Amino acid sequence: MSTQKPSSSGHKLGQLVGDWFEEQVAVTLLEAVAKELCLYLDHRFKTRKCRMGKIIWSDLEGNDVDYDFVLELGGTESKRGVPLAFFETFWRRGARHSKDKARDDSGKLIPMRDTYPTVRILGIISAGDFTQPAQELVRSRAIDLFYIPKAKICKAWEDCKVPIDYADSASESVKRSIADNVENKLTNAKKKQIHERLISIVGKSVFDSFLQRIVAGIAAVPVEFRVTSVLIGKPIVFNNHEEAEKFLQEKYTHSSAESMMQMFRYEVVFSDGNIFQRADLSSNDALSFHRAVGTVAGYFKIYHANKSIQAKR
Questions:
Q1: pLDDT tens figures, 102-126
Q2: Alpha-carbon distance 120 to 216, whole Å?
Q3: pTM of the entire predicted model
Q4: DSSP class of 67
Q5: In whole angstroms, what is the distance from residue 67 CA to residue 89 CA?
Q6: Is residue 40 located within the same domain as residue 139?
Q7: What per-residue confidence (pLDDT) applies to 5?
Q8: What is the CATH number of the domain that holds 169?
Q9: How far apart are the first and last CA of the chain?
């Protein structure tokens, strides 16, 4: 019993702070993105008819993985939409095993980029002690990282008369007292107060910068499509969606029987410099990918056109 109590109280406190961070900080940030782009944000703090419990998406290997947040085009309470962005979030009181956490969360996210050609952003929204090497690992995998240091989180809570920090050598009774105090005082009003205090400490510009970065990444449009046939061997480059679709719909008339097994490499270059690519696709699969990209591209072309009109008013 005595060996379990210290981790029990620390774990309880970590869950309370982590849930607050996810609900107040991460949800607020991503709801702002969803509002700006008119997208659907799925997360565990809302119920949804088209899913039971966890937010599950399947990867290329058929593995079902649960995510903290998904931004969807065309999603509703009763219908899942086209995935555009996946996010994980966490609070870490201590720096131990930071790199393992970075590796685990980025490992969950990366398959979504390979599975869905419409996914434009993978991100981690984090707070606490997260080492520089761990941060670099996340960014090296082309995953957006929003990070708030532990000291700023603790100050926001302290300023709102709900302390959450303690010495590493603190006794179980001290940890239990802090955890119980947090649980008793953490009303909805107090959660919002701490969030508002955090914004004033960190600076609104930090949150605005994240919002602008994610909006720009999701709303980036394709500028080039490349389709490579394994029989031809050289990519055929198209500057617009319609020409590429016409090519993929053609019936090939190669004289050899190999033409029946023709495969394609499909690539899309986006306006922010990112590239989606998949190899060994049948013409039907390549066309399916291309149409999914086209649906999203068409949506954001209208979005940018409307923004341009609004800017001129």
A1: 999 999 999 999 899 999 999 999 9
A2: 10
A3: 0.89
A4: -
A5: 9
A6: yes
A7: 43
A8: 3.40.1350.10
A9: 68
